[in-house]
Amino acid sequence: MMSPYERLLLENKAWAKERVDADKDYFNRLADLQKPEFLWIGCSDSRVPANEITNTQPGEIFVHRNVANLVIHTDVNLLSVLEYAVVHLKVKHVIVCGHYGCGGIKAAMTNDDYRQVLNMWLRNIKDVYRLHRDELEAIPDEDSRVDRLVELNVKEQVLHLAKTSTIQRAWKEEQRPYLHGWVYGLKDGLINPVFDMAPNTYLDPLYEYNFK
């Protein structure tokens, strides 16, 4: 009986053969070229694969994923991806994409103990809730409240991006990238754009860097 991981390897061979049968140079082009226009910061949820839901091909989107699509100023992993995408790949757009019904968002709205590391991570979402407490607690339906926090969380993460020196320097020197906050619907497969920031959008001066 085939194990689950063996099935993945078998499916990989079938997928690769299908690509080569349709286009014999498919992998040669991919191996020699990576010029994506987009950096995608998405949720780790297995139901939200960037290429699938945008109908794009490998090489078109540079991807980073974590629980609840957070942009945290001490996350070296995220910041190294951002630096590489903006400075070296010269992406024109950075997208933060959450999704309705996000488990990370739901978990952060409880007082449950998820052990130390996950508690630390989810506290960033609790901070978003605190900022928007009045609006959220005025929503009587729990599912609607969760979905609104998903949207507000995406907006806050886009603002976090704008506060980085990586983004501000690229805005000043090259008038890019545009920042976008999107939310994907698991029930209908559609993306809802909820927030955008063009290059050099006004920021609280406290967060602005003076570049020499």
How would you summarize the topology of this molecule?
Layout: H1 4-22, H2 26-32, E1 38-43, H3 50-54, E2 61-66, H4 76-88, E3 93-99, H5 103-108, H6 116-131, H7 133-137, H8 142-162, H9 165-174, E4 178-184, E5 191-197
Parallel strand pairs: 1-2, 1-3, 3-4
Antiparallel strand pairs: 4-5
Overview of the structural elements:
The structure is a single chain. The chain is an alpha/beta fold and 212 residues long. 48% of the residues lie in helices and 16% in strands. The protein has 9 helices and 5 strands. The chain has helices at residues 4-22, 26-32, 50-54, 76-88, 103-108, 116-131, 133-137, 142-162, 165-174; strands spanning 38-43, 61-66, 93-99, 178-184, 191-197. A 5-stranded mixed beta sheet has the order 2-1-3-4-5. The longest helix is centred in the last third of the chain and has 21 residues, at 142-162. The mean pLDDT is 96.
Keywords:
alpha/beta, 5-stranded mixed β-sheet, 212 residues, globular, 16% strand, 9 helices
- Report on the biggest sheet: 5 strands, mixed
Put simply, the count of helices is 9
SSE topology string = HHEHEHEHHHHHEE
Rg, Cα atoms, Å: 19 Å
Low-confidence stretches: none
As laid out across the biggest beta sheet, the strand order is 2-1-3-4-5
Distance N terminus to C terminus?
Answer: 64 Å
- How many β-strand stretches? 5
What helical percentage do the residues reach?
Answer: 40-55%
| Strand residue percentage | 15-25%
Mean pLDDT level: 96
Silhouette: globular
In short:
The chain is of the alpha/beta class.
